[in-house]
Specification:
This protein has 691 residues and is an alpha+beta fold. Among the domains are: 27-76 and 222-275 and 301-336 and 374-446, 4-Layer Sandwich (Glutamine Phosphoribosylpyrophosphate, subunit 1, domain 1); 78-215, 2-Layer Sandwich (Alpha-Beta Plaits); 603-691, no CATH class. 31% of the residues lie in helices and 18% in strands. The protein has 20 helices and 23 strands. The strands form six sheets. Strands 7-2-8-1-13-12-14 form a seven-stranded antiparallel β-sheet. Strands 9-10-11-15-16 form a five-stranded antiparallel β-sheet. It has a four-stranded antiparallel β-sheet with strand order 4-5-3-6. Helix 4 (110-126) packs across helix 7 (172-196), helix 11 (314-327) crosses helix 12 and helix 19 (619-636) packs across helix 20. The longest helix has 25 residues, at 172-196. It is globular, with a radius of gyration of 28 Å. The relative contact order is 0.10.
Length: 691
């Protein structure tokens, strides 16, 4: 069936709509099925596979029409199948307690696979586990497309048990935590071997990947179409494969090429849509790595770094951070609230739920949102849940039946349910969530989830005690500046006649935003014969045009310019002092705003970005180095906010306010462009472990 092609005429038969809609592919498909009572069954797996098959139109395929971008299931470990294998291996000897199962993609080259197995066993042993054996996962490669078959890994399951006094005393959560650490050690060790590229075998090790390693959950996935996942993995056809839940996903690859490891679900979650804040999320996660600490990890936390990797997909990075939070003690639902907050500032339903707003406000200065549009589903084996991001631009429907079956999906009707059996159905709205507690047999709705999470700590009291909200400052008096001096300042900062007449004049006189027709007939800055601003050399990574425009004025329900200044606390722990920040309503600060920040109880230092024109072409480089060194000095001295100013003379004391020094830029002094100096200081402080 894998190579059968369905003709266009068959697809269009009986369809009255536009023909092109039948071939439409986009956005990924995702969802979950769970039994509220925790009853395991093979029929649930079959329903999940049928639901997944209904999402085929959401996924992508290569030119061979059979190599899918990816499809997969995240379920409970099918212990009956593992026990069947164990019986063949060990006869009547029972399966030991505390056993974990890892789903592993090994290199197709057997000699490289042997190296990988040995390294896996070695690292697991070092972490207090013993490998009981390797189970070859039965598959049917005939259903694969040409590209998927060419890249097909060897797929095996490693069966593991705790083997030291320390690991044998751990509960299931503790074992999953140690297995997470062991898995990171394994990947780090293999990555070091791959970098050496000493032989064909070591190069082939780059195909190694652990889909899951847990005492509770397992992931079956691959570069297949959703319709053939169950045909490829023969385990999924086995009536002994039972589970009380299943998360399913059909991938449409957007920002990475399809690969077996990048199919979803990942280890704990899967999502459709895109994480459009990905670059910022990766940069900030790398910036905060030096501050991460938790008693569960101690000095072992370095094994978990780097948390994120720019070379993998947005989904993989999202899952990496999500898993870090969960293994550090957060519930999956709390981790979702931290990473994917709803738009809470203008949410009328939160008026009588201040604890939820306080939770989001506390974390707004610690963890930046991972913004979609996206629908996320997740499970750690104890619960299964789903949430939409704040925009709510991805559909999410749910159905609850009389016998406690809950079905959540990006499409309605993926599982056939008699209307008379439905007790509740609906959709998830922007920022809302739904979950099933598999241990307590409860279905949890949005506000119930969030109030439970937000009531764990007195976030409101912490904010009231430690956070300072910058009050609105009076407008400056109209500055008096001679025409010659104004022209010199405009020239120094790169203003053109067009900027003044078409942008600034309308904003100043009429109070309206500048509007232009689309198009830019000016040459690229790098090819221009005229002097151009540094900003002109940079472009957006993608083009986006909306009508009407999306901005915090028109879309104030989901957008805000408010931000917080000050140190970002440790993401892995909650402390009252982590709320010690300054909240500002806009990133654009006036002179009175700067003065108010300078006069606050926070330790603020200023560093001059000016340097002498006489320093010549090399002056810029030396100035940036000097500014970076001064920034390290003032931060090391305990200052939590650094003002980089072109209003200060070089050598001015750090506690001097910029406005006290006059205009700054002159015929003898020029400035380092803010884009350069902010980026340089930011990354230098990260390198020094101070950001």
């Amino acid at each position: 069936m894998g190579n059968e092609q369905v003709g266009e005429s068959a697809l269009l038969a009986g369809y009255a709509g536009q023909p092109w809609l039948v071939e439409e592919r986009d956005a990924c498909g995702v969802g979950f099925i769970a039994d509220q009572q925790g009853r395991k069954s093979h029929s649930l797996i079959q329903s999940a596979l049928r639901a997944l098959g209904c999402l085929e139109h959401r996924g992508g395929c290569s030119a061979d029409q059979d190599s899918g971008d990816g499809a997969g299931l995240l379920t409970a470990i099918p212990w009956s199948i593992i026990e069947q294998w164990w019986g063949l291996e060990k006869g009547t000897k029972p399966l030991p307690d505390g056993v974990a199962v890892g789903m592993v993609f090994l290199p197709s080259m057997e000699s490289a696979a042997a190296i990988a197995r040995k390294m896996v066993e070695s690292e697991l042993q070092a972490d207090g586990f013993a490998v009981l054996g390797w189970r070859i996962v039965p598959v049917n490669p005939d259903v694969l497309g040409i590209q998927a078959k060419a890249n097909q890994p060897q797929i095996e399951q490693v069966i593991v048990q705790p083997a030291t006094p320390e690991t044998t005393q751990l509960d299931l959560d503790g074992l999953d935590r140690e297995l997470y650490l062991a898995r990171r050690r394994i990947h780090n060790a293999i990555a070091q071997v791959v970098q050496s590229a000493a032989s064909a075998e070591t190069t082939a090790l780059q195909d190694f990947y652990i889909c899951s390693l847990s005492v509770r959950t397992i992931v079956y996935k691959g570069m297949v179409r959703s319709a053939v996942l169950g045909s490829f993995y023969l385990d999924l056809q086995n009536s002994a494969y039972t589970s009380a839940f299943a998360c399913y996903h059909r991938r449409f690859s957007t920002n990475t090429l399809p690969r077996w490891p990048l199919a979803q679900p990942m280890r704990l979650l899967g999502h459709n849509g895109e994480i459009n804040t990905l670059l910022g999320n990766i940069n900030w996660m790398m910036a905060r790595q030096s501050d991460l600490e938790h008693e569960r990890w101690g000095d072992r936390i370095d094994v978990l770094k780097p948390i994120v990797n720019a070379d993998v997909s947005d989904s993989a990075n999202l899952d990496n951070v999500f898993e870090l939070l969960v293994r550090s003690g957060r519930s999956p639902l709390e981790a979702l609230m931290v990473m994917v907050p709803e738009a809470y500032r203008n949410q009328p339903e939160l008026a009588d739920k201040p604890e939820i707003t306080d939770f989001y406000e506390y974390y707004s200065g610690i963890q930046e949102p991972w913004d979609g549009p996206a629908l996320l589903v997740c499970s750690d084996g104890k619960m299964v849940g789903a949430t939409l991001d704040r925009n709510g631009l991805r559909p999410a429907r749910y159905v609850i039946t009389r016998d406690g079956l809950i079905i959540v999906s990006s499409e309605a009707g993926v599982v056939a349910v008699d209307e008379t059996d439905i007790v509740e159905k609906g959709r998830l709205g922007p920022g809302t969530a739904i979950a099933v507690d598999l241990e307590n047999h409860e279905i949890l709705h949005n506000w119930e989830i969030k109030q439970k999470v937000a009531s764990q700590q007195p976030y409101g009291a912490w904010l009231q005690q430690h956070r300072y909200e910058l009050p609105r400052q009076p407008f400056l008096d109209t500055p008096q500046l001679l025409s010659d001096e104004l022209l010199r300042q405009q020239t120094a900062f790169g203003y053109t006649t067009e900027d003044v007449e078409m942008v600034i004049e309308g904003m100043a006189v009429q109070g309206k935003e500048p509007t232009f027709c689309m198009g830019d007939d000016a040459p690229l800055a790098i090819l221009s014969e005229k002097a151009r601003l540094l900003y002109d050399y940079f472009k957006q990574r993608f083009a986006q045009v909306t009508n009407p425009a999306i901005d915090p004025l028109r879309e104030n329900l989901v957008m805000s310019l408010a931000m917080e200044l000050g140190p970002r606390g440790n993401l892995l722990k909650e402390k009252p002092e982590f709320a010690h920040r300054i909240k500002v309503e806009s990133p654009v600060l006036s002179e009175p705003d700067l003065q108010a920040i300078q006069d606050s109880d926070y330790k603020v230092a200023s560093v001059s970005t000016l340097y002498a024109v006489s320093d010549g072409p090399g002056g810029l480089k030396h100035a940036v180095e000097r500014i970076c060194q001064q920034a390290v000095q003032v931060v090391s001295a305990g200052n939590t906010i650094v003002i980089l100013s072109d209003r200060l003379r070089p050598g001015t004391r750090p506690d001097t306010h910029p406005d006290h020094q006059g205009q700054g830029v002159s015929e003898t002094l020029t400035f380092v462009p803010p884009l350069v100096v902010i980026g340089a200081v930011h990354h230098h402080l990260i390198q020094q472990g101070l950001r």
